Amino acid sequence: MREGGDEDLELHRRLSSGDPGAFDELYRRYASPAYGLAYRLTGQQLLAQDVVHDAFMALWRAPEAYDPARGAFRTFFLALVHHRAVDTVRREERLRKRQERASNLEPTHGEDVAEDVVDEAFMGVRRRQVRAALKLLPPEQHKVLQMAYFEGMTQVQIAEELQIPIGTVKTRTLAAMKKLRRALQTEEDA
Amino acid sequence: MSTPEHARIDELLAGYVLRSLSGQDAAEADRLLSEHVPGCAGCRQTLADFQAVSADLALDATPIEPPETLLPLLHRELEPGERRRRPVQMFAVAASVVVVAGLAGMAVTQSVRADNGRKEANALRAVMDTASLPDAHLVPVGPATEVSAPGHEFFYLYGREVPSPPPGMVYRVWLVSGTTPTYVDEFVPDHGYVNLQVSVFDPSAYDALWVTQAPAGSEPVAPAPADALWRSES
Questions:
Q1: A185 class by beta-carbon count within 10 Å (0-12 exposed, 13-18 middle, 19+ buried)
Q2: Is residue B162 a contact partner of residue B189, using CB atoms and an 8 Å limit?
Q3: Which residues of B touch A112 (CB under 8 A)?
Q4: Cα dihedral sign, A114-B150-A28-A122
Q5: Exposed, middle or buried: residue B157 (CB in 10 Å: 0-12, 13-18, 19+)?
Q6: What is the pLDDT of residue B168?
Q7: Per residue in A33-49, is it b (16+ CB within 10 Å) or e — as a string?
Q8: pLDDT per residue over B133-144, tens digit each?
Q9: Could you read off the pLDDT of B161-185 as tens digits, one per residue?
Q10: Average pLDDT over every residue of A90-111
Q11: Are the beta carbons of A81 and B56 separated by less than 8 Å?
């Protein structure tokens, strides 16, 4: 992880000075995880492409938005992608509901996408650690995390969907985040 | 703050990094992020830890190669002139200059006083177009309204009945990240009317919008939270 982080910092430094080669290298490193994340949230290739496009353009136009003192580049960039994807999901959901009300059409389902790709080595290691950590969560905690992070739902929506008090959603979310933090920090320190 | 209060803050921070807060919880998180977290080492650490977990969660999604057309599309937009160039529109506001302020992740365009009705109509239409989007956010900022929509890298500060500041004073607009206010620009309403466009590359980079009052022509000095005459409420 640390090696990948150092390389990211150097690439970000070059990007900040306007080096298109650094942009290409960051694209090579992060386009696939970013697109995979955006696709998982939006379920549509065009929307996922828009999300990733906008995230990379935002990075190019304002590289100073990332402050190395506030954490790893990967944390910043994937959060940027996630936020944009969540916003897109919520916008599209409202549009879809409007359209459904208007035309009573079936909702759009996901599309076929290409096979997954080979990770950067450091990210592949981390991915395995994350998936192992997620398996440690009790199902009810995993569920609220899944609904919040990968379905873009608010805690209020999750409470309604699961028919549980919102306080329970908050408790489960916090417990899940703390467990993941412990598990992933342990892996990182190992 | 007490332990129970910090337990409540931790819950909000967990929801915040997952982008799953809404309503009062989102407003409370904004307030904490600007007023409490920056001065609390424990909360800063918790926030950083949760942000790292959130980024790790992204890796649970299977990586997928984007369409081959995406990188060439991006390359076309990497032309030197594209960098930091923000959309420029003309707005009917009281200020008499066009300002493009290159701040951290942000640029601001303020326009000239409208010298004819067409410009004012166009400016108003731009605000209304955004406000009428299905997921638009209209947030009160004192007597004005912040109008924004997810996925749009700008928002408006709009008002028709904004009182004039005392003689010799101006309003100043600040975007706040944590406890750090970044000066945006100043304005004086034109017969109560203000229409300011603020372009933001990364909306998550700021937590609140403040409006302060200051003597015209004075150097902008970062205000304390108590100095905010008006502030966004969510």
A1: middle
A2: yes
A3: none
A4: negative
A5: buried
A6: 76
A7: bbbbbbbbbbbbbebbb
A8: 666 777 888 888
A9: 888 888 778 888 888 877 778 777 7
A10: 58
A11: no
Among A23-32, A84-93, B74-83, name the one with the lowest average pLDDT: B74-83
Q: Average pLDDT of chain A?
A: 85
Residue in B closest to A63 by C-alpha:
B105
Nearest-CA residue of chain A relative to B135? Answer: A91
Contact residues on chain A for B33, CB-CB shorter than 8 A: none
ipTM of the complex: 0.85
Q: Which residues of A touch B100 (CB under 8 A)?
A: none
**B159, B193 in Cβ contact below 8 A?**
yes
Considering only CB atoms, B57 lies closest to which of A94, A116, A130, namely A130
Which positions in chain A touch B205 (Cβ < 8 Å)? Answer: 65
- What is the predicted pLDDT for the residue at B3? 66
Whole-number Cα distances in Å, B176 to A10, A79, B35, B47, B140: 28, 19, 10, 17, 16
The helix (run of H) or strand (run of E) holding residue B55 is helix B41-58
Chain-chain contact of B65 with A72 (C-beta, under 8 angstroms): no
**Beta carbons of A62 and B202 less than 8 Å apart:** yes
Instruction: Write out the two tokens for A71.
Output: 């954490």
**Cβ-nearest to B63 among A32, A149, A154:** A32
Pairing of strands B208-215, B169-177: antiparallel
- Measured CA to CA, the distance from residue B212 to residue B33 in angstroms comes to 20
Q: Answer yes or no: do B62 and A36 touch at CB < 8 A.
A: yes
Q: Is the pLDDT at A145 greater than 50, yes or no?
A: yes
* A155-181: pLDDT as tens digits: 999 999 999 999 999 999 999 999 999
